[in-house]
Amino acid sequence: MKTAYLSLLAASLPAMNIYAQTSRPNVLFILADDLGYGDIGCYGAIGVNTPCLDSLARTGIRFTDAHAMASTSTPSRYALLTGENAYRKAGTDVAAGNAGMIISPDQFTMADAFRSAGYRTGAIGKWHLGLGAETAKQDWNGTVSPALESLGFDYHYIMAATADRVPCVFLEQGRVANYDASAPISVSYRQNFEGEPTGRSNPELLTNLRPSHGHDMSIVNGISRIGYMKGGGKALWRDEDIADSIAAHALRFIADATTDGKPFFLYLATNDIHVPRFPHPRFRGKSTMGLRGDAIAQLDWTVGYVMAALDSLGISDNTLIVFTSDNGPVVDDGYDDRAEELLGTHRPAGPFRGMKYSAFEGGTAVPFIVSWPARIRGGQTSAALVTQVDLMRSLATLIGTTIPQKVAPDSRDQLATFLGQDLVGRDYVVEYAANHLLTVRTKRWKYIPANNGSAMITWGPKIETGNLPQPQLYDMTAPWEQYNQAEEHPDVVNALQNILESELAPR
Fold this sequence. Notes:
single chain
């Protein structure tokens, strides 16, 4: 189905709007990992400087009411790349490192839209949306297929999942980068391989980081992970080099696309600020918050490095940059890196209650910056209500590609909002917590349906779930979601509950 649609789009290219044919921008999408609303300078960070991100905001628009679709990584990324809210698709919970591909090859993706419009497309960094046809059946010693080329990406250099999950190798074009034939790779999320040490049994081998909860299985680079892995040899990453590797491959992709004279779409998904936080030594001590703050400084460097490359290639003016995070922040997410102890007065989630995993706003409220010097006046701040799921249709409009109604069912064309021409944005956004609780935000209200369960996450992080046996309604013109007004505004509760019921209807 997707192949037929791509052929139809290719045939329609000559009829696209004049702007799309003559002035299509390069599009660089930078997705941080576990970066909170309050974690960078222009959003109020304390204890860490982020000059490159602050500079990016000065060249464009800083959004103050922007939202990821979900409060965890896999569902958030799924919604962003497909325009479909993750609760519509089974299997979009946080994926294991050996999960099968969660986006089906026959689904039309954001990368497909750009490829159909003649763009060179790339994905570099964290993936965490599964690889291969079936879970636990990937050939890590050969070619993992299907991979990202079936989702519209011409080039891909990725981590299969997260840095705290095996396999701890990069894959380039579906094969393990720097593959070491002397150390064949085996991966399991069920049982360990005979004779392989683990963080639980061999804590003396944890020379870089120790777990605070979980994360006590296979050891790579002196850090224990989730899952079991054997082999890898020279292909195994060093955590302190991950940011450099991602940045170098991004620069190579951009330079190659520029040499070919084609516009590019690059999905650049950094590993920062996800655990294990183990930034390069040159970033140590750059913050007052230890490794978590230093990882934010490292992320800022990555952004600055890529921006400098755009300048040196003479393409910065006509490159649209979107910078955001996949979900809200988390402090202690499984490693003893003193993140809670050294937090000080810094508030990772800014004025919002809750963090990653939570149904409260801290789980999904994220920094969001859009810069395009050729078209967007710098120094703007927008309070428009926006969601990442709308990027697919909005960017398709920008480049002149038509997406049929049955594709990207939850994505709306909000291009005018993202370019600063509409200061209102959405009438509401839907958000998805780790406990599968759906919530709804309007400009004024946050509604959380009644839900039984623990008020706090029970398996590790000190984070509120958002569970309460009664409905919750918060006035978002006041910070911290402290005063539940559900009983005082039953009409608002009813209206927002109706929105959720309509959203759950098949599309």
